[in-house]
Amino acid sequence: MGKGYEIEMEISGNTAMWTRPDTGDCPVSYPVPTYSAVKGIFESILWGPAVHIVPTKVEICAPVQYHNYQTNYGGPLRKSGVIAGGGGFQLLATVLIDVCYKLYAEVLPIPKALKDRVPDKAQQWDGKTTSPGHAYRDIFGRRLNRGQCFTIPFLGWKEFGPSYFGALRETTEVRADISMVIPSMLREVFSEGYASRCAFTYEQDIKITAGVMTFSGQGG
To answer: Are 198 and 190 in contact (CB under 8 A)?
Structure first.
């Protein structure tokens, strides 16, 4: 694995949902975004299958506030009879409100053994680049400053769009009064990057100290 390059950004919004998989059909949010959620937010600015985005740290910059949320669900998880009748059901969730985070990650080139499975266009880009991580970081920074994105970033659920995403703001302060331990937290589902198989990984006893959560090097 080659040299890593650091990237960072800030995101805030009115509502967020970092779903705990153990909370079933009335989902409850973790107090902070998961590893895969942070990775997805970075990739929404610039997606590139020839590099690995490795989230390293989240800084919480707003109080952790839970809120009851109800929505009328009309998606594919309804019973077949309900879908046929055009009906839905009311989904209850416990979400976060008025969130703000500073996100940090490292960009690494993918291992040579995985390069064969990335799309042809990505392989061509990788072949022309002597340092994929460096190139990604520079392009990412330019896109972030211009407000460009590959897809619109969102805060867990797609209906929860951000009120701000961009470079770190000097006026945003980390909430040093927030410290806690999360006993178990979903890390990611597709751990080997582009076209990888589904494999759930978790982290245990995640510590948030003075508003800062640091991801471990590898989930279990």
So the answer is: yes
